[in-house]
Write a structure and sequence with these properties.
The chain is an alpha+beta fold. It is built from ten helices and four strands. The protein has a four-stranded mixed β-sheet with strand order 2-1-3-4, covered by helices on one side. The longest helix is centred in the middle third of the chain and has 21 residues.
């Protein structure tokens, strides 16, 4: 399979399926496109070969079949690799995992806007200021804390449903925001965040992101060009 992604430092949506494939040892090739939202850019021209949405990520199977959208990609991976518990095996837990992913997929707009993923940056002061000034961000964080804490306490951890699953890959970019912006969460939620960051797929993505050294000014509301 071929997974088409954007810059690892910034592309939170790309991170999800990459981490999922990496964690379960599923072989894939990576095509990383340098993000450039200018009309007619090389980024858009190349991406149009793989998806009609002009968004990363996109998955192309070895027979040429194309899948886009992170939830659709996760479901396709699960269908192609039933030997792995991409989703929890228990039907109720599987439904709950999908519910949480769908909630993440459609929600938390304030967190996304005020705290864009930026793995190489330390933005703790920014995070503290935003949390203090923005009640919508505090509501997003309260909900995330509830999701993580309730799931981990119910499953026994260290991940949301005990073993690592698509749900944890889906929340990995949120973990990056929590740690880079120093966002306040309960001890249980922070322990979960540390477990996700230490997991092999996430750690590999972070290593690659730190090695990029590609500053994209349009993705940098809080830092100046080095």
């Amino acid at each position: 399979m071929l997974l088409v992604i954007g810059n690892k430092n910034y592309s939170s949506w790309s991170m999800r399926p990459w981490v999922l494939l990496k964690h379960f040892g599923i072989a894939f090739d990576e095509l990383k496109l340098r993000i450039d939202f200018a009309p007619g850019s090389d980024f858009y021209r190349e991406l149009s070969k793989y998806t009609p949405t002009a968004k990363v990520p996109a998955l192309v199977d070895d027979d040429g079949f194309k899948v886009w959208d992170t939830l659709a990609i996760a479901e396709y991976i699960a269908d192609q690799h039933p030997e792995h518990a991409i989703w929890p095996r228990d039907a109720h837990q599987r439904a709950r995992a999908r519910s949480l992913c769908a909630e993440m997929h459609a929600g938390f707009a304030t967190l996304r806007t005020l705290c864009p993923m930026n793995i190489e940056a330390s933005l703790v002061d920014v995070g503290a200021a935003k949390v203090e000034s923005d009640p919508a961000l505090r509501r997003d964080l309260a909900r995330i804390d509830a999701i993580w804490s309730e799931a981990v306490l119910a499953s026994g951890g260290p991940f949301l449903f005990g073993e690592f699953s698509a749900a944890d890959a889906y929340f990995a970019p949120v973990v990056m925001r929590v740690t880079r912006y120093g966002l306040p969460l309960s001890a249980t939620a922070l322990a979960y965040a540390r477990a996700v960051e230490a997991s092999p797929g996430v750690a590999a993505w972070v290593d690659d992101a730190l090695a990029e050294r590609d500053f994209l000014a349009f993705n940098e509301p809080y830092r100046s060009q080095p």
